Amino acid sequence: MNILVLKSSGHKNGSSNTLADEFIKGAKESGHSVTDYDVFNADIKNCRGCDACRRGSGKCVNNDDYENELKGMIKSADMLVFVMPLYYYSWPAALKTVVDRFYSFSSELSSMGKKTVIIAAAWENSTSAFEVTKATYEKIGGYLNFKDCGMLFAGGCPTVDATKSSKHMQMAYEMGRNL
């Protein structure tokens, strides 16, 4: 399986990316092809809602990393893995911007049968902290006919050291390994 891991933390070696790396390790050990993509540091502009992508050439007016490379990577992936730190109980802007840009090919995307996983890390150690994040993931997945293959909501991960000593590391690894 071709897996695209979309990392959205501003901290390259932060808690959410550390969990993603464990997922990747497990997935690679199971023979999957994995590419990770740093959406936080990519040049990805907001959707303008101008509908240019749905008229004429079908090309987005934003000449950015999304249009020039990431969109093609998304199309060719069998699975998308959404990786994020929890920001005010929801998705960080960098990752939500990527999802908003799905608009340019949502009909095509919804017919592709993509599999998805979500990995989110938070300081707060409460399942209620992830309610909005989970609901957003489920709604997007339902709208685009994605098949959920796992959710890891890692509360109590305020630092990388705390994350590395948590049960979530093994959970992330096993999630990737058991695909």
Could you write a compact summary of the structure shown?
With 179 residues, the protein is α/β, with parallel strands linked by helices. The protein contains seven helices and five strands; from the N terminus they run βαβαβααβαβαα.
Structure, described:
This protein is α/β, with parallel strands linked by helices. The protein has seven helices and five strands, in the order βαβαβααβαβαα. It has helices at residues 15-29, 65-76, 93-100, 106-110, 131-143, 160-164, 168-177, and strands at residues 2-7, 33-38, 79-85, 115-121, 147-154. Strands 2-1-3-4-5 form a five-stranded parallel β-sheet, sandwiched between helices. The termini are close together. The mean pLDDT is 96.
List key phrases describing it:
alpha/beta, 179 residues, 5 strands, 7 helices, five-stranded parallel β-sheet, 38% helix, globular, single chain
Structural class: alpha/beta
Overall average residue pLDDT = 96
Strand content: 15-25%
The biggest beta sheet reads:
5 strands, parallel
According to DSSP, the number of beta strands is 5
Strand order of the largest sheet: 2-1-3-4-5
From the alpha-carbon coordinates, what is the Rg to the nearest angstrom?
16 Å
Number of helices: 7
Uncertain parts = none
* Spatial separation of the terminal alpha carbons: 9 Å
- Overall 3D geometry? globular
Order of helices and strands: EHEHEHHEHEHH
Estimate the helix proportion, in percent.
Answer: 25-40%
Topology (elements, then pairings):
Blueprint: E1 2-7, H1 15-29, E2 33-38, H2 65-76, E3 79-85, H3 93-100, H4 106-110, E4 115-121, H5 131-143, E5 147-154, H6 160-164, H7 168-177
Parallel strand pairs: 1-2, 1-3, 3-4, 4-5
Helix pairs in contact: 1-7
